[in-house]
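User: Hello, can you help with two protein structures?

Assistant: Certainly.
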Amino acid sequence: MWNAINGASNEIVGGIVVAALFGLLGWVYKRYKALKEEYARTEQEIERMKEETSRIGATKEEHERLTAELQRRDEELRQVKANSQEDSMRIKKLWGQVSDAEGQHSEDLRRNEALQGQLEATQADLRRKDEALRQAEAKSQEASRQIEVLQSELQRKDEALRQAEALQSELRRKDEALRQLEAKSQEASRRIESLQGQLEATQAELRRKNEALRQAEAKSHEASQQIEALQSELQRKDEALRQAEAKSHEATRQIEATQQELQLEKAKPKLPPISDTEFIELCKSGYAPTVEAVIMNGANVNAKDKGGRTALIFAARSCHTETAELLLKHGADVNAKSDNGWTALMFAANNGHTEIAELLLKHGADVNARNKDGWTALKLATINGKTETANLLRKYGAK
């Protein structure tokens, strides 16, 4: 009876073990499918990372580093795939073992059912026949042997269970490797996003600096134009100031000379009138005191000879500076022309009389006046090699 109870207990334990083994195999198969799906998603993520790396145009060093990282990950994925294939083969083999164990368990159940019937018949016959008891004892011994075989089978199944646990541990290790790979992939994505953000920030800063540079260039150009205008205005005012100072000085000198002339006029006796020709000849001599006395006696300061040349023209041609100053002081026409269109400034420039030329210019001589041949004072000074006089003319705007 106790042998029958032990047999039933072993059957229950065997059923529980087989059920647990089937549950474990089901979990292993689900985990294998999840790993395959994770592997596919990882491959898609790697392809997206490759496309993203190509799109943002990373630097050569960063691209090589990412390429090496992707190759390393591809190698890890290939290893995972190979391990998954190996696991698949192991799972198939385990399924075969489970099928064999299931068949053996069914056979054991049938044998145990037969043994239970025999034990019940033996217990019924035990009360009637001792021979039946001996047969029952023999059958009980046989059942014990069968139980030992079943225990051996259970030990074998326990070993298969330990192998399944080892497979589960291996799968957990691969899960950890996949999580690490996913973490590295996410880190690479974050670094790519960071690089993209830095690139956009750099481009925005470059656009801002270019705009500031254009504004600075515009302001610099405007400031240069304003400085040039101010310099031109300053030069013009300086020139006007020089002319005003010259005129003031000349007016002061003329007032003083007039006062002296009035005093001399009062002290001197009246001279007889002088003709234009005589006045011109007197100016040619350059004797300033006599010229001044004659002027004070009413001589015509703009008298001309037969060629239309004035006394100022002859004074400029002969470089009689003092005589020229007297004539200008008493109203001589500084721009009077001879019959051929020559002015006193042209004669001074032609002969290189720089001092006379400057005197005439200060009294308003036309620096760009032309004779009948179309020549200016600057051209006459230039063709005659009067460099100093030419430079003076240019200073006063000669062209």
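That covers the first. Now for the second protein you mentioned:
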Amino acid sequence: MVEVRGSGLIKIVYTGDTAPANSIIDIARGAQMLIHESTFSAVEDET
């Protein structure tokens, strides 16, 4: 997980594959942009 802060005008949070976590919710709160990258294999595709 990466939290980027600049001059205080914008907050961007980037996170990758992860199970649900309260820490991500806490860090992303108030962010103008949340990028949550996720991948899964065809085996994991239930549709």
